[in-house]
Design a protein that fits this description.
With 101 residues, this protein is of the alpha+beta class. The protein contains 4 helices and 4 strands, in the order βααββαβα. Strands 2-3-1-4 form a 4-stranded antiparallel sheet.
C-alpha cells in the first residue's frame, strides 16, 4: 500500500521559474530518498506558502522523509511545517486516474 505525504509551510519565495531554478538540485536529490515514488510541488505566492504532495512506498519511509525534511526546512529558517500522512485507497484512486504505482 502506498502512502501520501502532504506538506505545506510559509515561505516568502522564490516562486515559479525562480523556484524551479533555485531548487532543481534539491528536486533531484529527493529522487534518491528511500521509498520515494513521486512529488507534486505546490506554491502560492499570494499567501506566501509552498510545499508538496509526495507518494511513498510505505508509511515508515514517508515518516522518515518528513522528519528529515522538517529538520532541513528548520535549517532554511522555516520552523513550522504542516504535514499529514495518509494511506492511499488504490482501488478508488485507480478509478479516478490517480498516479499510484
Amino acid at each position: 500500500m502506498a502512502f501520501v505525504l502532504q506538506v505545506d509551510f510559509k515561505m516568502s519565495g522564490p516562486f515559479g521559474d525562480e523556484m524551479a531554478e533555485a531548487f532543481s538540485d534539491l528536486a533531484k536529490s529527493i529522487n534518491e530518498e528511500e521509498g520515494f515514488i513521486w512529488k507534486i510541488w505546490t506554491e502560492s505566492p499570494e499567501t506566501e506558502e509552498a510545499g508538496g504532495i509526495y507518494l511513498f512506498k510505505t508509511k515508515e519511509t514517508a515518516e522518515k522523509y518528513l522528519d528529515m525534511h522538517s529538520k532541513r526546512l528548520a535549517g532554511f529558517g522555516i520552523p513550522k511545517v504542516n504535514a499529514k500522512v495518509f494511506a492511499v485507497n488504490s482501488k478508488l484512486t485507480e478509478i479516478t486516474k490517480g498516479p499510484v504505482q
